Amino acid sequence: MVERVPPHAAQPRSRLRILLASGAAALGLAAASVVPGVPLGAAAPQQAQAADSGRTTLTVAVAQSVDSLSPFLAQKLLSTSVSRLMYDFLTNYDAKDNHAIPGLATKWEPSADKLTWTYTIRSNSKWSDGQQATAEDAAWTFNKLMTDEGAAQANGNFVTNFKKVTAPSPTKLVIELKEPQATMAALDVPIVPKHVWEKVGDFSKFNNDTKFPIVGNGPFILSDYKVDQYVKLTANKDFWRGSPKFDEVVFKTYKDQDAAVAALRKGEVSFVAGSPALTPAQAASLKGEKNVKVNEGPGRRFFALATNPGAQTKDGKKFGNGNKALLDQKVRQALFLSIDRKTIIDKVFQGHAVEGQGYIPPRFSAYYWQPSGSQSLAYDPAKAAQLLDQAGYRLKGDQRVGKDGKPLDLRILCHATDPNDKAIGKYLKEWWGKLGIGLKVDCLDDVSVPWYAGEYDLAFDGWSVNPDPDFVLGIHTCAALPTKAKASASTDNFICDKTYDDLYKKQLAEYDPAKRADIVKQMQSWMYDSGYMNVIAYPNAVEAYRTDQIKSITTMPEAAGNIYGQDGYWSWWSAVPAGSGGDADSDSGSGSTGVVIGIVVVVVVLAGGGFLVMRRRRTTSDDRE
């Protein structure tokens, strides 16, 4: 799973990392059962509980709606985050450094040729209806992704190289591969209960929102849901890693982010995530507020512009109405040469972001890539004008006109709930206008419809990147294209190129971490030169919570990371209610520190040298995980 910001959403699925999550673990080392512990922290003892029941409730204000509660369809950050709380994955990521640790599987081992992987499934995980979770559930989940196109929409890319998946026993899962695959310890796929899901008919239409509570085996059980209002989850007291400390976690939807911030200030919610981050003004307004803590850390997301390279299906059928001018690489590069990233960082993000370059954020240092000096598309309006001239779009008065005599006018999809989209849209209109290019900024509540239909020219795009970047790389392969026009698919913006596809397959089959990282960097270089995607910034994760409701909570990475949208469930699982007498328990030695990391601390970390080392969905800064 990954998460994203455009139509389908951003996790998956997604980083700063010390280890290649898949590379190191994929070498077949049995995972050590190191698990993030629970932080301690001082807090004013004010309740976060319903007065009538005494149950402790952690309410998270979000500026995003759910696209689906089905883990086979969910692509928005909120949706994939909820899936991580509802269902266990084979493996998880350690909160300290992102290395792979046990999940539903206690260990995983490859054959000598790395083509057969055997997972030992834990015997102490139960579904919330009392039935045992077994290897058969995992095998059924993966086989459904392999054989049902409707079920493969969100996470199908993880199994395209699978040859056969079987469950010889309740605690033994065997996956046979066609070719070596370096992501076998980073399969970000929620495992579902076979006895429940085998009754589903059309997976492409089933949203898993008709019967509550929903059967799961994660740290929380989804107990109630109201469209565009809230998602309520109840603590799974039988969760094998230990019960959460809060009785309930409620994700409450706010269409207006300022209203969500106001709710936090009044104590009506415990935490505010933003969309996906607070604006600088909102963060500043909360700093110093009594009982409010602002947390900021290097983000796992990127903020980018995506061009429409010509929407098409897997069999090559063209559709949509993207401007054909964008089929020319010179035009695409000219647009990006006329974007002043520094101004955007300074004026829009007000320093709470790092200037964008490659596709993978610097938080994930092993894969982070930067263009060479001669390759860089730095701000250069004069060069942009030259490229437009060369492409046949010359100035006629104050407008760029093509050889057909038509003016070069473009449209860009903007998320109505994201203030960054709107602010940057104004700058683009000004900068491109000086070049003679017209721009219409289409701010919509749901950009998915025109995006899937290919009815756009450019779009504000963004994804959360996982410790293993395979997912966000895979959404630009030919295999990710839709099978029919306007259908939901895992593609981001219809890119399909043999050079890129060959590199993708090569990195997937490379077990050597350093060699694989080099191939991933080659892919980013190709993407950068193509002009199909232009990463403008890596926004910091800026969020806030009430210390009189939350005593302590785990960030990821623990030293200076994010709370919302993690590569795991550590934040909400570890959170301790204010006024709680006991500390959260830990089943391992990976102790975590409480969140006492505010803006000032993180700024020091960033300015002092780097980001600590450390999944997909599209909507409003929404995340296709």
UniProtKB/TrEMBL annotation:
Mind telling me which CDD domains this protein's record contains? PBP2_NikA_DppA_OppA_like
- Signal sequence span is 1-31
Q: A single GO molecular function, which one?
A: peptide transmembrane transporter activity
The lineage's top-level taxon is Bacteria
A biological process (GO) of this protein is: peptide transport
Where would I find the Solute-binding protein family domain in this sequence?
A: 101-473
Give the UniProt entry's GO cellular component terms.
Answer: ATP-binding cassette (ABC) transporter complex; cell envelope; periplasmic space
Transmembrane residue ranges: 595-614
Where does it reside? Cell envelope
Q: What InterPro entries would the database entry show?
A: Peptide/Ni-bd, SBP_5, SBP_5_dom, TAT_signal
* Keywords noted in UniProt: Membrane, Signal, Transmembrane, Transmembrane helix, Transport
The family annotation for this protein states:
Belongs to the bacterial solute-binding protein 5 family.
Q: What is this protein called?
A: ABC transporter substrate-binding protein
Give the organism the record lists.
Streptomyces brevispora
